[in-house]
Design a protein that fits this description.
With 169 residues, this protein is an alpha+beta fold. The protein has 4 helices and 8 strands. It has helices spanning 25-35, 42-50, 101-115, 130-138, and strands at residues 10-12, 15-19, 54-60, 72-81, 84-92, 120-126, 142-152, 155-164.
């Protein structure tokens, strides 16, 4: 399920969602830093790209932003483990939000996970991140538990959410 495998590109709201590459990593890390995700950094994403069980997608604009030169507007990092897809990180640049890009990224990952044999998806989300929780609920996730002090900077509990996956293959 590695990003290095051929992953079909899908179009959503003027963005192309496809396999993340090493060329995307500087922008991915920039998005990570500006959106408040727990920091992985370039080395961790680079190592993840090499893992055969990794599913890493990026949402790219067909043309660079005229003011910044950026093309990556969002990404998702997930990993297959047995029959489960674990969503590790998902983020969208603030200026690209409210266009359904996060939903499109997560939907694409869930579909690819199901095609790869996953029967469920799991993720952790900050208790205070109500916007993300709403997105996850819209895509079929339900809360199944809570992890105390899961996040460190800043300290916060995490909700554990799970969704069943159905393969269309």
């Amino acid at each position: 399920m590695s990003s290095a495998r051929a992953v079909r590109e899908i179009e959503h709201a003027g963005f192309l969602i496809g396999a993340m590459t090493e060329h995307d990593l500087l922008e991915v890390v920039e998005i990570e830093e500006t959106t408040g995700l727990s920091l992985w950094g370039w080395d961790a994403y680079r190592a993840e790209l090499e893992r055969p069980e990794a599913l890493m997608l990026a949402a790219r604009s067909p043309r660079p932003d005229p003011s910044t030169g950026r093309i990556v507007s969002g990404f998702i990092a997930a990993r297959m483990s047995a029959d489960e897809l674990h969503v590790n990180n998902i983020a969208v640049r603030p200026q690209a939000r409210r266009a359904g890009l996060g939903s499109a990224l997560l939907g694409a990952a869930l579909e690819l996970g199901a095609e790869g044999g996953a029967v469920s998806a799991v993720l952790e989300v900050r208790v205070g991140n109500l916007a993300a929780q709403g997105l996850y609920r819209r895509l079929g996730f339900v809360v199944v538990g809570q992890r105390r002090n899961y996040y460190k900077q800043p300290p916060e509990d995490a909700l554990v959410m799970v969704a069943p996956l159905v393969s269309n293959a």
